[in-house]
């Protein structure tokens, strides 16, 4: 992914936004950030702790701009308050938000959903993967321009396991379903303010998140073989879709879950060779 060249332009020139969820160079959030930067956006990046900062800072510095990084533990109200106060003090406004944060325990991403999901694991997955989007959207929207001034745009990242049963996705699928429902309700609330809220449902990709799911490699192969395009989901496709939703090109689009998975989501039964 680090060798990918993203189309340059000025679609995001003059716009400032926060990207939450970059973990390494293979993160979907990083691919989105690179595309937004190539189109002229000014970016801020949040990180949870010092360990993540050490991984993310070299990436941010590679963009060539003055690094703007701010700590944000999405499970802590005081940390989130401080994060958005820092953004307000530095910029005064926020034009867009990219939320690409999710978490579930590794033991709960394998085997039986019914038997492996603990009360604490369920609560934690919902808090970090779904409620954090509600919280971040509320805080970000308070910094966005009025409808007359152009409003703003917010996106979250989801996956097909929210709609259909995917082996080993388990509690994360339930959390992503909550995330998608939250996207629609937030879109309803913020729509009158000129703020658009959407989700991107990306196909399987080689990310840190995918590595944490038992059987992830098989999931990727199935996604390619059964997809309509017979190809893997690409970061270029996901980043381009994010650019559309976050830029003025995406006007009139809100409350949407946009599938970017080479058509896999629309397949009912995969092609089967007739051996008769």
TrEMBL record:
NAD(+) binds at residues 21, 27-28, 48, 73-74, 101, 176. Pathway: Lipid metabolism; fatty acid biosynthesis. GO terms for molecular function: enoyl-[acyl-carrier-protein] reductase (NADH) activity. It is an enzyme of class 1 (oxidoreductase). The active site is at 159 (proton acceptor), 169 (proton acceptor). Substrate binds at residue 104. Its EC number is 1.3.1.9. CDD domains: ENR_SDR. Keywords: Fatty acid biosynthesis, Fatty acid metabolism, Lipid biosynthesis, Lipid metabolism, NAD, Oxidoreductase. It catalyses: a 2,3-saturated acyl-[ACP] + NAD(+) = a (2E)-enoyl-[ACP] + NADH + H(+). It comes from the Bacteria. InterPro entries: Enoyl-ACP_Rdtase_NADH, NAD(P)-bd_dom_sf, SDR_fam. One of its GO terms (biological process) is fatty acid biosynthetic process. Belongs to the short-chain dehydrogenases/reductases (SDR) family. FabI subfamily. This is Enoyl-[acyl-carrier-protein] reductase [NADH]. The lineage of its organism: Bacteria, Pseudomonadati, Pseudomonadota, Alphaproteobacteria, Maricaulales.
């Amino acid at each position: 992914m680090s060798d990918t060249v993203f189309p340059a332009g000025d679609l995001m020139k003059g716009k400032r936004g926060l990207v939450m969820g970059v973990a390494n160079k293979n993160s979907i959030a990083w691919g989105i950030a690179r595309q937004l930067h190539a189109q002229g956006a000014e970016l801020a990046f949040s990180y949870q702790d010092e360990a993540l900062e050490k991984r993310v800072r070299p990436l941010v510095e590679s963009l060539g701009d003055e690094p703007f990084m701010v700590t944000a533990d999405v499970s802590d109200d005081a940390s989130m308050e401080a994060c958005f106060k820092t953004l307000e003090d530095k910029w005064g406004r926020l034009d867009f938000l990219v939320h690409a944060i999710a978490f579930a325990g590794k033991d709960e991403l394998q085997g039986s959903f019914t038997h492996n999901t603990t009360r604490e694991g369920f609560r934690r997955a919902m808090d970090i993967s779904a409620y954090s989007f509600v919280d971040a959207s509320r805080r970000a929207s308070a910094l966005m321009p009025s409808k007359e001034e152009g409003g703003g745009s917010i996106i979250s990242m989801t996956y097909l396991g929210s709609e259909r049963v995917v082996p080993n996705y388990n509690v994360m699928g339930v959390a992503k379903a909550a995330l998608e429902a939250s996207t629609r309700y937030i879109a309803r609330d913020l729509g009158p303010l000129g703020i658009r809220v959407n989700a991107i449902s990306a196909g399987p990709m080689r990310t840190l998140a995918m590595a944490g799911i038992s059987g992830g490699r098989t999931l990727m192969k199935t996604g390619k073989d059964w997809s309509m395009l017979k190809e893997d989901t690409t970061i270029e496709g996901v980043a381009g879709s994010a650019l559309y939703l976050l830029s003025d090109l995406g006007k009139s689009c809100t409350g949407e879950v946009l599938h970017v998975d080479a058509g896999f989501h629309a397949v009912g039964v995969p092609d089967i060779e007739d051996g008769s």
